Amino acid sequence: AWLWMKPHPRSPAIVPGALPFIGHSHQVIGDRKHLWNFFRKVQLYSLKNGGVCEFWLGTHKFYVITDPEDSLTLSNTCLNKPYVYDFAKKFLNNGLITAQASVWKTHRKLLNPAFNQQVLNTYVNEINVQARTLVSKLAPLAGKEPFDVRKYLINYVLSTVTRTSLGLGTEDQVLIETDYAEAIDELVAMFCDRGQKVWLHSSYIYKWSAMKRKEDQLINTVKNIINPIILKRKSKLKANNDPNNYNNLASTPGKFKPVLDQMLQLADEQNAFTDDDIREHVDTLAAASYLTTSSAVTFILLVIGKYPNVQERIYKELQEVYEHEDDNFTEQDLHKLVYLEAVIKESMRVYPVVTFIARKVDRDVNLKNCTLRAGSSCALGLYGLLRHPLWGADAEQFKPERWLDPATLPEHRSLYAAFGVGRRICIGHLLSNMMSKIALAHICRRYHVTGDISTVECEFDVALQPVKGHHIFLTSRK
Ligand code: HEM
What we know:
The chain is an alpha+beta fold. It contains 20 helices and 11 strands. A 5-stranded mixed beta sheet has the order 1-2-3-7-4. Strands 5-6 form a two-stranded antiparallel sheet. A two-stranded antiparallel ribbon has the order 8-11.
């Protein structure tokens, strides 16, 4: 093992503190706040050392890339995910996040059209409905005490994503928002837990653990909820007597074709997906969307709360866009909210929620100054890319204005890494932006927000999130 750990020519710098056999494993043990500090530290170390460095978990080598060009090379050369993603494989299997490159290529191509702007525009009405529900749930809290807004946002994102992907009626939707949401939440937390408990990485040891028994139980819960929904929808579409049938929906204003229907249609016409594939895609969309988007909006509210001038400018822009206090935000309105968009982008740059992604290095890869060895894993440091010196001397500062003038933005596209880098970039990024924008527009037109991003401590939980209990305070604008 020691020989394997020995640097070879064209090796990058090794993060200090490695021990024989265990590498840096002792440095990741601790709570989630500690874990985030470790990941942050290695990315800053990578930035300082020419954009690539390495660390070790046991005898497994992880490279960390924060150079924009090298990260693009690696992410497009190696499309497979490393073994840590396999922890979620039993649950999400052929879903886009965990799918092997060969399956991913076909499925991603088939699913891309379901997330293009034209399709997303048909969701605007539904997202407004959900944002109104969010605002009405926040109403009793306004003017009272500071509170943790994240759980309300989780609920908002999960309802929106499951509504638009499953198209359920109110009855079935209740089950999704309670039992299904809870099971997904526990499963995601469990994968993160296993990642940190290095001894449970071995599938042999894991097989005998209480965590594995719990995982099986939760996966069954999820299957028992989603499988009947898929079957029911399938037979309804087949019978062609459903008034919600796609062909009627497509042309009805305010209606949309849920992703589930699009997948069932592809399955029917092209044999593209099995029922299991479809469930895995639906579960992946739910799991990938809610922690990320809810954290992002929480951070944005804390940022808005900290900078009153930014908040007033958002409010002014909103007032210019809608005519009546109670109007929905239309697709055209969303285009006009350019300052709000800049605030969202800048907040996600300075306070990203997905701080790194990873790839399996399944062949030797030559980068500018070093060679990555096959058999290892590589983390692409999104946090590092988003504050790379190429952003300018003010890279650490929150400055939404930089997005209003393209001339001030860095040229390299992979520096805009909040939603990933390369071909496996987030499929839901436009939907996520729409959900964030509509929720913030509804909140900011009703309330004045107080919060303080500068005192927030973060913990790593798949998505980065404020340590529990970080609060905002709302006062009604009326
Ligand atoms: C603030 C919100 C979000 C952030 C920061 C985010 C970030 C990311 C990142 C960094 C990746 C790349 C993962 C990797 O390469 O390993 C990714 C992938 C993915 N995201 Fe998102 N995401 C967000 C919201 C969403 C939403 C709303 C959805 C679904 C509706 C979604 C669905 C997915 C899926 C399915 C993938 C896998 C894509 C593939 O490999 O083809 N995400 N996301």
